[in-house]
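Here is the promised in-class demo. Please do not try to memorize the tokens; focus on the logic of going from shape to residues.
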């Protein structure tokens, strides 16, 4: 690790919970720079350090997860496999309730919910515990690739590395600067709104999914409970957004019979909005660079869920970085292994098959206003189960 000011670095490590290696170290050098300390970036950084290489994890916010917009639903295995304490679990829900225009369907399945400002921070701390250096309050504004390395620029810092990993979410610099990673297009991007509603010790023990044109034409409304709050949200593919999404949110909160009664007088603690990729990226590697997580379109294009895929993508990206550093080969040819290996994963196959299905149903939506709910039912339950269910 070649860092300009070692004293400052040691001071940083004495307090592993203060993410503050910055400002006074304008020129930094490392093996790998990871841009973005979400689930994808922190996992990538952790795996690289586990292989014995230097990594700097760069986050624009004061701490990871601080401004992340998410309902926070995932699988318990994600927490367990990342080595995080189950104390960070807000709620364990026992079922998904799907409210289709043609009726209700309950699927018994365990989900857990987390606050992203807690989950992301814990994941980043794991990477720091293993040896990653964390640079917070640093937004990378430009990246350039030279013959002997990569250079990143924020307002105050320059970071030189052998490799860069873009884990900077849907609006990734990788696409804007190099044309790789997730390309935001109107029919391949969800726009979403969420509200975190105060509800102390709420009794909800299931996650809800509400479908139909009265909510949004292509997407759904959701209710994901935590211990003392409930996340209510709506998401719709951009190209199908016929009215203001705020109207859909207000409908969920005030007038929709299945949720309005519950929420209309409750206190809203936070409102936020964000984009969700709805298509896998065509290319997720380049010279001296990899793209991972939302930045690579590693998101379920029907549900918009991406935490687990970001973590799994991060594990692979970290491994490939280590292989590239060991071989001292940073060429696109070598790094193309990352895409080949990702394409063989269950995550990618799941995402890709759902992407193909969503294209078919998107076409059918010209004739069928319930095309999205049908897509959601078919891809959640499988066509066989859906047909059996309909016959009953
Ligand atoms: C409303 C909504 C609800 C969702 N609900 C769920 C859910 O319940 N379950 C689920 O599995 N998924 C959900 N998702 C999707 C999930 O949030 C993402 O798939 C997941 O966060 C992807 O992780 P990531 O690490 O790739 O990106 P992100 O979590 O977006 O992390 C990117 C990080 O990079 C930082 N960053 C960005 N640009 C820069 C820069 N230039 N320099 C430095 N740092 C930068 C950001 O601050 C951020 O910390 C939801 C998404 C939305 C929008």
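The designed amino acids, position by position:
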């Amino acid at each position: 690790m070649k860092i300009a000011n070692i004293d400052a670095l040691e001071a940083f490590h004495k307090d592993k919970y203060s993410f503050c290696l910055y400002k006074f170290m304008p020129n930094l050098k490392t093996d790998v720079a990871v841009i973005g300390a979400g689930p994808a970036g922190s996992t990538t950084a952790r795996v690289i350090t586990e292989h014995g290489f230097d990594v700097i994890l760069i986050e624009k916010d004061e701490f990871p997860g601080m401004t992340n917009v998410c309902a926070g639903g995932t699988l318990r295995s994600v927490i367990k496999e990342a080595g995080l304490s189950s104390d960070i679990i807000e709620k364990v829900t026992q079922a998904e309730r799907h409210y289709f225009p043609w009726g209700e369907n309950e699927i018994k399945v365990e989900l857990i919910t987390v606050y992203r400002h807690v989950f992301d921070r814990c994941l980043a701390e794991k990477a720091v515990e293993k040896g990653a250096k964390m640079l917070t309050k640093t937004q990378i504004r430009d990246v350039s690739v030279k013959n002997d390395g990569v250079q990143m620029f924020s307002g105050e810092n320059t970071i030189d590395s052998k490799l860069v990993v873009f884990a900077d979410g849907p609006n990734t610099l990788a696409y804007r600067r190099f044309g790789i990673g997730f390309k935001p297009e109107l029919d391949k991007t969800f726009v979403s709104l969420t509200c975190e509603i105060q509800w102390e010790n709420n009794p909800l023990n299931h996650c809800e999914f509400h479908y139909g044109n009265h909510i949004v034409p292509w997407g759904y409304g959701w209710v994901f409970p935590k211990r003392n709050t409930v996340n209510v949200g709506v998401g719709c593919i951009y190209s199908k957004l016929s009215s203001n999404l705020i109207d859909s949110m207000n409908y969920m909160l005030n007038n929709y019979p299945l949720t309005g009664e519950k929420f209309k007088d409750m206190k809203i603690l936070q409102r936020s909005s964000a984009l969700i990729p709805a298509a896998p990226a065509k290319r997720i590697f380049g010279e001296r660079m990899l793209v991972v997580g939302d930045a690579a379109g590693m998101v379920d294009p029907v549900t918009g869920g991406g935490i687990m895929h970001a973590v799994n993508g991060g594990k692979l990206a970290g491994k490939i970085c280590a292989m590239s550093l060991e071989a001292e080969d940073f060429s696109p040819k070598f790094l193309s292994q990352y895409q080949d290996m990702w394409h063989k994963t269950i995550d990618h196959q799941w995402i890709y098959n759902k992407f193909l299905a969503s294209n078919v149903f998107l076409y059918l939506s010209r004739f069928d206003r319930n095309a999205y709910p049908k897509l959601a039912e078919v891809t959640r339950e499988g066509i066989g189960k859906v047909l059996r269910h309909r016959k009953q």
